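TICKET: design request
STATUS: open
ATTACHED STRUCTURE:
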């Protein structure tokens, strides 16, 4: 878990001192609570060239790092808490929520006031990504959309800065993987291609094939205005059972997706422990037809999707996967 809060824009000299003191204070809180030992580490690096220098001074331990991140050119200071031990997450979240800094709304307002297609705009969008995390497990789609805009930018620096955000915030990586792959293969700027390849190397095989697992829940009525009231499209059926005949009942995992209209993205998910009955086996067209024995629903990000009773699931043989 990585928590990052933007502390100051265009800080005064006193505020620069206050930011360093806050970093030390956060470390002291961890020392008092957990008895941690910290070391200093100065990781000053460059996003693109010597004029775009971001400095990160870290105070590190085995379980948590406290970062003070600055950019002299754009005059900002941010504090990051990199939590590597799950036992420190609740304490870190409490500290984060009590640190004064810029809110998500204030950063969005700053974006609206910034000239588009500029380096300043791309960095402000990265602030927005950081501020949107807050330990969240579900991404903010405004942030995803803004990142997509940066990756489509005609300015190579904007693309590079958006990709840099992928290193810091893996929560958003899977939503941008196809675009990053496109940049590796097709972008005409060699630096953009290089950075895109570096981002691709950060992905694990598990992340690339990651599927959100959702529990089946008791079916209940949806609002008439809900965009998720129609039965979903079934992508795959996973099971340990071997299909032998019609009317056979199997225990399966159903793979489908939510269409996220805000970012034109399909979020793939899997529902486990669903009882299906085999209604038809069409050998000539190589199709299976299944029906669920009981109605159920899945809820994700406060959205619901229905599986009515006896909903037909017609899939090709190669989408019926033995596990």
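STATUS: resolved
RESOLUTION: sequence designed for all positions
ATTACHED SEQUENCE:
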């Amino acid at each position: 878990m990585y928590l990052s809060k933007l502390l100051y824009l265009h800080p005064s000299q006193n505020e620069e001192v206050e930011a360093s003191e806050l970093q030390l204070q956060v470390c002291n809180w961890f020392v008092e609570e957990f008895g941690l030992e910290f070391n200093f580490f100065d990781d000053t690096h460059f996003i693109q060239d010597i004029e775009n220098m971001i400095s990160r001074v870290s105070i590190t331990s085995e379980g948590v790092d406290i970062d003070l991140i600055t950019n002299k050119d754009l005059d900002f200071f941010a504090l990051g808490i990199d939590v590597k031990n799950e036992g420190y997450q609740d304490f870190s979240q409490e500290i984060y929520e009590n640190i004064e800094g810029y809110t998500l709304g204030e950063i969005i307002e700053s974006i609206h006031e910034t000239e588009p297609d500029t380096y300043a705009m791309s960095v402000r969008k990265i602030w927005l990504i950081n501020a949107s995390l807050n330990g969240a497990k579900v991404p903010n789609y405004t942030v995803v959309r803004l990142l997509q805009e940066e990756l489509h930018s005609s300015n190579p620096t904007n693309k590079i800065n958006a990709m840099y955000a992928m290193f810091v915030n893996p929560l958003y990586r899977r939503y941008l993987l196809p675009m990053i792959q496109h940049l590796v293969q097709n972008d005409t700027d060699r630096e953009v291609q290089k950075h895109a390849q570096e981002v691709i190397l950060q992905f694990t095989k598990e992340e690339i094939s990651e599927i959100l697992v959702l529990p089946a829940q008791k079916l209940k009525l949806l609002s008439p205005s809900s965009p998720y009231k129609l039965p979903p499209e079934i992508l795959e059926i996973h099971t340990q059972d071997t299909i032998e005949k019609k009317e056979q009942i199997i225990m399966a995992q159903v793979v489908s997706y939510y269409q996220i209209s805000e970012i034109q993205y399909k979020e793939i998910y899997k529902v486990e422990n669903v009882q299906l009955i085999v209604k038809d086996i069409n050998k000539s067209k190589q199709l299976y037809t299944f029906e669920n024995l009981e109605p159920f629903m899945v809820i994700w990000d406060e959205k619901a999707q229905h599986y009515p009773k006896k909903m037909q699931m017609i899939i090709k043989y190669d989408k019926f996967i033995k596990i």
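CLOSING REMARK: The two ends are 31 Å apart (CA to CA). The chain has nine helices and 14 strands.
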